[in-house]
Amino acid sequence: MAVQNELFGVKWTLNKQSSKFTKGWSPESETRLYEETPNGYKLSVNGVHEGKPYSWGYDAKYDGKDHPVHGREDADAIEAYKVNERITLGFFKKGGQLCGPYARKLSTDGSSLTVQSVGRRADGSAFFDVIQYQKP
Question: Smallest Cα–Cα separation from 76: which of 67, 84, 85?
Answer without folding.
Answer: 67
